[in-house]
Every structure is written in structure tokens, then in C-alpha cells.
Amino acid sequence: MSDLDQLTQSLARNLRRWRNERGFTLDALAARAGVSRGMIIQIEQARTNPSVGTTVKLADALGVSITTLLDYEQGPHVRLVPPEQAVRMWSTSTGSHTTLLAGTEARGPLELWHWTLMPGDGSASDPHPDGTTELLHVTAGTLTLEVDGEDHLIPAGTSAVFESNVPHAYRNEGTETVEMTMAVSIPPVR
Length: 190
Hints:
By secondary structure, the protein is α+β, with helices and mostly antiparallel strands.
């Protein structure tokens, strides 16, 4: 089984599990996530590989991390994630990419990401649930962080914390590659 097949099967199994655990019908999850009922059915039947945006919307609606939706094993209290098991979530033909490094459900989902943004590339995000906080640290280049329409320049060595329940985007408007690590804390579903 290829990595993509394994990912598709894990997502199908975990989406069904978490939807049932939360007591959501297909229609309820579709409305909550802003994803069509048909798409959810296709994902749960492992007939499609959804976009990162769709996967984020479903994870947010369920109150779990993307890691939890993609995880094919629930490990012990200490779980090591070797580099080859980190999940490449987004990439461009110019070499920009994001990698989900690790995540946890302790006190609400928590995710750790590594980002590479090539000059001229960017990625926009829809608002996350109220109470979601992102922490990031730029290790190379200068990141343009847009939060609710306002740009913030974040040079290498600088960190930022923001509530991400508003539209936000990450852009590299410079000439050097941007490297950053980001943690996302999502509030538990009530």
C-alpha cells in the first residue's frame, strides 16, 4: 500500500470515528465544516483525497487536529515522529511547502508545523474556531503575516503569536526563502 493509499484509508477511518464520537450526522458535520455532504461521504469511503483546506475545515469542525485525522496509529504517551512520517500538506512547483510535524489532543488539539516559503509564494487560511491561537518563529528570510487584512513583517529570529479566528495568510514577498516553525492550539469542542 502506498503512502497516499495509507493516508486516504486513515483519513476515512478517523473521520468516521470522530464524526460518530461527536454524535454528528453527515448533514451536521457538512453544515459545521462548510464541506458538502457528498465530499464527506467520498472521504469516509476512501474514494478521494481532499484538499488541505477541506481537511482543515473538517478537523476544525470536529475539534481535533489534522494529525488526529491523518494518524494511522494511536501511540503511547511518548510518540516519536521520525522525519519520514511527517506529513507534507501543501506544496508549489517553485518549492514552497508545509510539513505537519506533530500534533496532540491534550487539552484541545495542538499542532506543530514546519513551513518553507519560496520567494513570491504564499498561503491563505480561512478563520479557525474562536480561541484558536498560532505561535510562529521565523528562522530564515522575512515572513509577511497578514491577520484580518493587516500585514506584519516578521524577520528571521522573530516570533509572533496571534488569534487565528480571522482570515490570515503567510507570504514571502522577499528574495530569500522563508523558513518557519509554527504551533497551532485549537480549543476543544464544547
